[in-house]
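Structural biology now treats backbone shape like a language. To illustrate, our science desk offers a sequence and the tokens encoding its fold:
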Amino acid sequence: MIFVTGATGHVGNVLVSELSKRGELVRALALPGEAIDHIKKPGVEIVRGDVRDKDLLIRYCKDVDTVFHLAAIISILPVNKKEIYEVNVGGVKNILEACKLNHVDRLVYTSSIHAFAEPEPGSEISESLPFNPTKTSGFYGKSKAEAALNVMAAIQSGLNAVIICPTGIIGPYDYKLSEMGNLVRLYLKDRLKMGVDGSFDFVDVRDIVEGEIKAAKELDKGEVLLLGGQTMTIRKFLELLHEISGKIKVQHFLPKTAASILSLFSSIHYMISKEKAALTPYAIHALTRNYKYSYDKAKNTIGYKPRNIKDSLRDYINWLKSEDICET
């Protein structure tokens, strides 16, 4: 039996579907009230609950061989700090205790590229960097760094666990509309009028899932693995959207200072309207660091081979249109 937390999220639902296709028995955790139609698959037992409930996790980890812990609050806005900490840090502490008490064979914890200590702009990001909450930016990144340190401590105490750090995840089956999904949606609706002079690494959700499954089976205990795809400028990313969709090409790109100022107003608008913001101070910070990302370790250890990002974006756009998400 495999237990997946965060099963309705972008990575979670694709992981549940893939495990089902492979004939695995899966226990999938969804929050009370969450839509679950997209994870109703053969061999999947859907259970309800919150990772902040330790007793519930202990119960759901019974008779489980492998746990994929994906549940987290992903936020690039400085809001809901208490809830982010309770889920991203407290939820990890709870799953560690549940795995320990139930003698789970393997825990795969999905952290984030933002959990690593930040080097100088333009540097390479790889697994050689430490997890350090005081040397990463944003409350989300700090929460993921602290949680990763807790997992490392549990590994030192004997838990068989590995840590996965994805870069910017894109691709189909994005039912909750991630930050990247919202950006693509805004572009397709001709509402994205300008970009940012910066860059990031983008990876297909299906490649992340393949990497997670391989890591669960092949990676040595205690290993940290960065899963990336293709590093590109935001100009290039938006050019690819233009080539695929035929929509109007974005012509204007803001330097860091101007983008940072605009992002403050965008964040205030979000807090008033609750409409997803295209620009936030943390997003601008991440995009203008212009890091290079190395997934050489993943290639060498699990044979990781991410697909071309243009193919991912084409599938992403087709899926968004098929779900009528571009029209909302």
